[in-house]
Design brief:
The structure is a single chain. By secondary structure, this protein is α/β, with parallel strands linked by helices. The chain has one domain: 3-Layer(aba) Sandwich (Rossmann fold). Helix content is 37%, strand content 20%. It contains 7 helices and 7 strands, in the order αααβαβαββαβαββ. Strands 3-2-1-4-5-7-6 form a 7-stranded mixed β-sheet, sandwiched between helices. Helix 6 crosses helix 7. The protein starts with a helix and ends with a strand. S-adenosylmethionine (SAM) binds next to helix 1, helix 4 and strand 2.
């Protein structure tokens, strides 16, 4: 649900928190980075292009930039304030204010990634989740990679959305031949890596 998503992040923006990882809703910089590393480790192409869905304050862009590698980056987020801040901070980088499902992808990037944008409840969560996964899969040249909170987590917070891995893989089986579910890096998190070919 866009409204809940906007409300959630706008109240964090109003708090004027000193650190970007706090403003985009992460509990710590460490776990934000662990998630980024766990996405990046599946990038196997040099000089790649990446679409970062739910880019927040562009921290994944900064993470890649520090690696001193060649890449082309586009970040998209439904939160207008986040996108304005990204554009101010990172000149000449492609940041777009849009809901992913409304965004027209003109050129397929090698990788489409999502870190954290699927963690809040949305109306018809499973239906929307499937649409997002299908769009990622159809529009990436190499892989689509995203993380979610697992419903088998020991701690369940009512303001978060949790996904049943079994149901999720039943769905992915219907759209993709090759994929991987990685549950090795944080106890409550799963990453899904879907190969485009
Ligand atoms: C937890 S934050 C993570 C930000 C960033 N990926 C990071 O790890 O630093 C999730 C972000 O996803 C955005 N978002 C949620 N649903 C979205 C959608 N359908 N399309 C685009 N952005 C979305 C939110 O506005 C928010 O900025």
């Amino acid at each position: 649900m866009i409204d809940y998503n906007q409300q959630f992040y706008n109240q964090l923006i109003r708090k004027k928190l000193a650190k970007s990882f706090l403003t985009v809703g992460w509990g710590s910089k460490k776990t934000q980075k662990i998630r980024f590393e766990n996405i990046y480790k599946y990038f196997d192409k040099n000089n790649f292009s990446v679409l970062d869905v739910g880019c927040g304050l562009g921290d994944f862009y900064l993470f890649l930039k520090k690696k001193k590698i060649k890449f082309r980056y586009t970040g998209i987020d439904i939160n207008e304030t986040f996108i304005k801040k990204c554009k101010r901070k990172y000149k000449n980088v492609n940041f777009i204010n849009s809901h992913f499902l409304r965004y027209k992808i003109k050129t397929k990037p090698d990788y489409i990634i999502i870190s954290g944008a699927l963690n809040l409840p949305m109306d018809n969560y499973l239906i929307l989740l499937k649409k997002i996964i299908l769009k990622m899969h159809k529009n990436s040249k190499e892989k689509s990679i995203f993380n979610l909170l697992s419903s088998s987590s020991k701690k369940i917070y009512q303001f978060n959305a949790y996904t049943n891995i079994g149901k999720l893989s039943e769905y992915i089986d219907t759209i993709a031949k090759h994929y991987l579910i990685d549950k090795t890096y944080l106890s409550h998190d799963i990453s899904v890596i879907i190969h485009s070919k």
